[in-house]
Amino acid sequence: MKFLVSVPASTANLGSGFDALGMALALHDEVEVTSAEAGFLSITVEGAGSGDVPLDETHLVVRAVRATGYTGGLALKCRNAIPHARGLGSSAAAIVAGVVAGFTLTGRESDTDALQIAAEFEGHADNAAASLFGGVVVAWSEGERYRAVRMDADARVRPFVLIPSQESSTKTTRGLLPAEVPHVDAAHAAGRAALAVHALTRDPSVLLAATEDRLHQNYREPAWPDTVRVINDLRKLGVPACVSGAGPTVIAFGDLPAEVDTHGFDVRRLDVDASGVRVRPLD
Hints:
It contains 9 helices and 11 strands. It is α+β, with helices and mostly antiparallel strands and 283 residues long. The strands form 2 sheets. Strands 1, 2, 3, 4, 5, 6 and 11 form a 7-stranded mixed sheet that branches.
């Protein structure tokens, strides 16, 4: 069996929707998967992570394949376009690629179990759900079960990202968050997260207010001060902007004003990916 898995990048949080809101972006990793005899494993990696990621059973795609119950041999050719450790869901994309590959190898359709397996790797489902389903997602957990709903992004939602060369560890940036936040900030987050769903799917004109955050960005500023500077500069000019996931990438909407200093950032216009992960048979 031979097939190609294409999985989109994702942005999460989108302001105050911490660990709950996600959106798929049209930047794709591809994994060419070939089944083989038991005990055989071959992995090649091109692009992001080449020379850095392991090429054995500890490779994240392989681990995700194994989590589906597939125990046979594998040959993987990974072509990675999603930057690693930048807040664009590279790890979730790898996990989703592996889970979907495992389901395909075992003759199963991707279903709610695919999300469950993928989300268990990271402990939250926002990035994984976006990469699986595409569009805009709201993710949550019920006990030990992960859930998500998908919505279409409004056609007027025009995201762009500013990707710095600096990497960021999710584990490190989560360590900067306080154990508790003031009630007023929690209430603010609830209102803005709800508004973000409306803004992203119905009315982008309110994205500036919808992406205002009090839960995590200011606490994480020591990890990436230039990211926060760019966000503040954009927002002062009326451009909705926030940290993408655990950073340090900035996600913004609309157009980039010429007066914003983006030195050190790779600016890219990325459409919303409406399809999510795709599998294509190969001859």
